[in-house]
Write a structure and sequence with these properties.
3-stranded antiparallel beta sheet; globular; alpha+beta; 17 helices; 408 residues
Length: 408
């Protein structure tokens, strides 16, 4: 009797909910009712709030228990492995050709002074600011200008920075002194009006902090051979009659040897002719000189553009690059080795963030350019004229030339 009476009350309450919508009495479930529990009386407003909260909890629980409810199995990637030759950390499907070609490539780690490493890794507001604007700081200290069309939609849209270049990339170097009525830029900042050097660099970007600029300036003055060369040149009384030769890496120099001041450049005075000028050496004029193209197959291509990543002026890859065991390296072998993660090595390159993305894209273009250059200069070895007849036959509609192959 008690159970049937309670059900009647529940039915009458439901009809009141649909008609009046004022005071509502909700019954508990049948199990609680059978046990003799009493009903709850709530107002219309409280009931509506409970419904909202109930709906929110249901959606939250669905998201939280997504894998359990649907039964999607979790998949864990296999543990990474370590190359037994160079100790690089590799994904499970990557072979040792990815890093050192099974021990054939041996290079020293890219070095950096402790002051620069601290600037790259400081967990302070100033360190965060530096890493967010690292490309701007590198720009105001680089010796060369970089010509590239960057996809700004990817670079500025969303929360993840992406550096995507379209077309070719080239580096240019100008004269030692600016033309009249022009402010100094790039390498000119190391020579012209050095008393106001920090202020001149700050004009490049308003987001820079002067104390960070001064810190970087002190580090490069102490450790970078290119900066030291320009500093010495700025103190010469006969600067207006001087020219500068930026030299490529000597062919007999091992890759682990850091460049010295005497190796990276030489000063020419007046009409003095350049002696022993090698093919990839460039002569920088004092003033009114045209922009010179920096060849991507020269070792100074990287340190002139990325002084923050290479504060010691470490040469990048060039045609004379050899590993520590004397083997000649390709462009791909060099950058595949130095960009690997290795335990117990604090690589400043891998801490570069947005500047690292620019560095990787820049050198990827260099790698592809070297491949195309090799194909162009080895047409006789490839015997490409033998493929012309096959292409003519296929274009003419002949289909009995045998099996088709894709020639890479």
């Amino acid at each position: 009797m008690r159970q049937s009476h309670t059900r009647q009350i529940s039915l009458s309450n439901r009809s009141q909910l649909s008609v009046n919508g004022v005071n509502q009495i909700s019954a508990n479930n049948a199990n609680h009712t059978a046990a003799g529990t009493s009903t709850n009386v709530v107002t219309h407003g409280n009931r509506r709030g409970q419904l909202r909260r109930g709906r929110g909890r249901r959606h939250h629980n669905c998201a939280r228990n997504f894998h359990e409810n649907i039964g999607v199995a979790k998949y864990h990637l296999p543990a990474p492995k370590t190359c037994r030759h160079c100790h690089a950390r590799l994904f499970h499907h990557e072979s040792n050709d990815m890093c050192c070609k099974n021990g054939k490539t041996v290079l020293p780690p890219v070095q950096a002074p402790p002051e620069m490493v601290q600037l790259f890794s400081a967990q302070t507001p100033l360190g965060t600011h530096f890493r967010q604007n690292i490309r701007a700081y590198n720009h105001v200290f680089s010796f060369t200008s970089m010509g590239v069309h960057v996809d700004q939609n990817l670079a500025t849209g969303g929360n993840t920075f992406t550096f995507r270049a379209q077309g070719s990339i080239y580096h240019k170097i100008g004269s030692l002194l600016p033309n009249e009525n022009n402010r100094p830029r790039f390498l000119q900042l190391y020579i012209y009006d050095t008393e106001h050097e920090v202020e001149n660099r700050m004009l490049e970007n308003e987001a820079l902090h002067s104390n960070v600029v001064e810190t970087i300036q002190q580090i490069l003055n102490q450790h970078n051979p290119f900066v030291q060369t320009f500093r010495h040149l700025a103190q010469r009384q006969d600067l207006l009659t001087c020219r500068l030769i930026i030299r490529e890496q000597p062919a007999n120099q091992r890759q682990y040897s850091l460049p010295s001041v005497s190796q990276v450049a030489a000063v020419l005075v007046g009409a003095e002719d350049a002696e022993n000028l090698r093919g990839r050496d460039i002569v920088v004029q004092t003033r009114h000189g045209q922009l010179l193209n920096v060849q991507d197959c020269a070792g100074y291509y990287d340190p002139l553009q990325y002084p923050l990543l290479l504060p010691y002026g470490t040469y990048g890859w060039d045609l004379n690059s050899r590993s520590n065991n004397g083997r000649k390296m390709t462009c791909r072998d060099y950058y595949a080795y130095i960009l690997q993660i290795r335990p117990h090595h604090e690589s400043i390159l891998l801490r570069g963030g947005r500047l690292l993305q620019q560095y990787v894209v820049d050198n990827y273009v260099k790698i592809e350019t070297q491949k195309l250059r090799w194909v162009r200069s080895n047409q006789d070895n490839l015997r490409c004229e033998l493929y012309d007849g096959l292409c003519d036959s296929l274009n003419g509609g002949e289909n009995n030339a045998g099996m088709s192959f894709i020639i890479v």
